[in-house]
Amino acid sequence: MSLASLFANKCLEYLLHDDVQQRPGRKTPPHPPWSSAAEKFHSLCNGCGACVAACPNKIVALSEDRLPVLDFSQGGCTFCGDCARSCPTGALQFEQEKEPWNIRARIADNCLLAERVLCRTCGDCCEQRAIVFPLADDGQLPKILSDQCSGCGACAGVCPADAIYFAANQKGE
Ligand code: SF4
Ligand code: SF4
Ligand code: SF4
Fold first, then answer.
1. Domains in the chain, please, with CATH?
2. I want to staple 122 with a disulfide (CB 3.0 to 4.6 A). Which of 39, 64, 155, 160 is the partner?
3. Ligand 2: which residue has its CA nearest to atom 6?
4. 170: Cβ–Cβ under 8 A, 6 or more apart, which residues?
5. What is the pTM of this model?
């Protein structure tokens, strides 16, 4: 079997695996950048979908409960601010000087490197150079440098194992 076939088979195995179907990122997609704090966001957002229509990258979608969430399967966020500027209720509020959000990428343990399958796809897509790979092929996962990661999501949609999810940055990480 060629290396390419082996890689494709490993990817398929992982995508069909229960753990992958339930990866954290699927459960907790982030709201658009410049979202108000959670309680305020939920009270202000009326699910009008203006932010969905405004996003030039088509990565904002309405969830089942009609709240906007990001879907990085189609690409990453450029932090253009169009979604936040379009919001009529103040649930999203664009402020040039304000950090768009505090989320960072995380890598789950279904990353192909855990099975010693060579993959650097996420790192190749990260303009911030925020993903550091282990030097040895010893099953260690890549590390995300929290002070460099913008949470843009460019790495998430390209991951063949669907192993990248997002969470709030904790102080000191
Ligand atoms: S900041 Fe721009 S690219 Fe990012 S979600 Fe909003 S509209 Fe889309
Ligand atoms: S979210 Fe963006 S900045 Fe962070 S690791 Fe992924 S591609 Fe790099
Ligand atoms: S793209 Fe990154 S997170 Fe996904 S399998 Fe490859 S090395 Fe792991």
1. 1-28+103-168 (3.30.70), 31-101 (3.30.70.20)
2. 155
3. 155
4. none
5. 0.84
Ligand at shortest distance from the CA of 160:
3
Residue 82 identity (one-letter amino acid): D
Count the residues in the chain.
Answer: 173
What is d(CA 163, CA 114) in angstroms, rounded to the nearest whole number?
Answer: 11
> Would you say the C-alpha torsion 40, 34, 104, 26 has a positive or negative sign?
positive
Q: Can you tell me which atom of ligand 1 is nearest the CA of 80?
A: 2
Tokens describing residue 14: 């992982």
In tens digits, the chain (173 residues) has pLDDT values of 454 444 444 444 444 343 443 354 455 789 999 999 999 999 999 999 999 999 999 999 999 999 999 999 989 999 999 999 999 999 999 999 999 999 999 999 999 999 999 999 999 999 999 999 999 889 999 999 999 999 999 999 999 999 999 999 976 55
